[in-house]
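Record pair follows.
FIRST:
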Amino acid sequence: MKIFSVHSPRALFVWQRVHSGRLGMASLAVAALLLIAGPAQATMTYDSGLAAPGTYYGSGNPNTHWVVDNANGVEIGLQTLIRYTGSVVPTPTNSNVYYVPTGATTVTGKSGSAWGFAFSLNLNGAGLVLNDVTTSLQMQDMANGTTGSFDALLLSDNYGYSSSGRDGGSSSNPLDATKDYGFQNAEALSFSSIASALGDSGYSMNQNNAYKFLFSVTCNTGNCAGQQLASVNSTVIAGTGIPVPEPSSIGIFSIGLLALLGLGLAGRRRKHPTGGTHKA
């Protein structure tokens, strides 16, 4: 288990736009600023287990291969799953990147996509309960160009956890947000309601793709009202995915982008030696 800083999703976006030839010179300037001046990201723990009470959604699910953020007394996590089988090991292990197969599950008697994802929130260290916070589960479909989010606390089959143990798990037996300090669930994009809630109604389980997940929690009460307490993110590569740079290359790319910008501007100056303002 190792701790590393999060890689900026801006760099991924900019790289893809440059790679596809969709950035002009003016946009390159903006892109360079995004890479340099973006807000600081959280520090996450990769390939981890959750603190007590661990993984408690469903039955028999492993407390392994989570990506976790601990901040302000809050633990928040994301896990990628091969459905009905187990959690996915990140690749490389010191990362929040998970590779999964395309297509349907091969488990007999089951249906839907081969992979899914789980999320967990534990507020115990902050002395808060679920009624004190709002969450945001966001997903970006990189191939389809869609982004959507919703409050994961609103799902009716969430499992909750309090000093009395686990509760919830179904709409007929919901968690108790007035006393539960934690909740978990596992979902899949092959559930149409989940895909729609995440803005991805065109999701196809057979598509080579990349998905970026961001799970965050914001306090809505007392002295911490309006404060984002913690956030965690992960990237899921389905099948062969789409072109994504290695994390270690993002810094090199940033320098190269600035150099490209400088060369482009220098070239433009040479084309207009008499000075003045050139208008397109």
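SECOND:
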Amino acid sequence: MPKNMFTNNSELRHLDLSDNFLIQIDFKFEHLIKLQLLDLGGNGFRVLNVDMFLQCESILQYQNGTNSISYIAGDSKLDVILHKNPMECKCDDIFITSVEWIENSGFVRDDELLPVCSLDNKAIVISKTASKKTKDYCHLIEVRRIALIVGIVSASILVVCVIIVIIWRRRLNKKNALERFVKKIKVGDKLKNLIFLSFCNEDGDYVLENIFPRMKEEVSLALECDRNLVCCGEFNFKPGVSVCIEAMRCIEESSVIIFVVSKIFCEKSWCKMEVDTANAMRKPAILLMLEKVKLEEMTPYILKLFNRYTRASWVKDQNGGHPHPPWPVIITSVLELGSSFNVENQTREEYMSEQYVADSNANDVSI
């Protein structure tokens, strides 16, 4: 509606604006000092704006002949009808102010024409108790919201704590399993060798001169063990015994298999036999690439390892070459693979025996 629509209607006594789909009062009417009825029913008011309050109070002040803005219900000559408006009971200051204004004003009809709002799916008449009901409801909503937040935060903290404990226990179990595995390897219990180094005869001279001795030395230093923990056919196959049987024995007695892969290695039937044997025994394996090999030249299991797992390579130089990544990384990987394989293939009796020995060592303290 135009802001100055009623500028020239100072004698107006009844102003019926009902059922006009109004959503707020933005026109001036405080000069209508003789106004007796302002019907705003059946519109679209959800909240009442402050400007409307002030204009109604200004009219009431003039009619009562007082400068006070405090009024007693029933003394007003001005009646305001607000029923049939879709008032929303909301937990905000504007709505609470609207409710309190309706309750405390002397010009909102205190009868069946009082406005109604929806509170928690219930119709609440905005009367003398509406403000308290609304505030109580808002307080309940706030308590529920806080309780929900506290519950979610508490549950999240609990879940995080459980995850941390699980991760810590897994790491501790992994560390303990690795320590037990290293002890078993050092004494040669069940698994006599940490590594079985598999290579073809054509690469034998280079491997035995540059790779095998360095690997033995690095493993011994890492585990602080004087015993040789690296096995290969050149030094560990028993004379006069089938090569196939000896290869199977060495692979079975070793924790991790390292294949020195070259083009010739992929072509040799004996090398393929060692690869298939390690696969059949489900031994963890690492590829040490001596040179670039085309995928179509690899055996199925070598190709599977090449595509699925990370691998090491041997970089030749004037000092005999070096592995990439360096020896400490390779040895750490070997120990972790061997430890995991040991845990997976450990019988219950072996596990309980290890736990008993570990507990005995922990309690064997001299005072």
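COMMENT: Residues 67-76, 358-367 have pLDDT under 50 and may be disordered.
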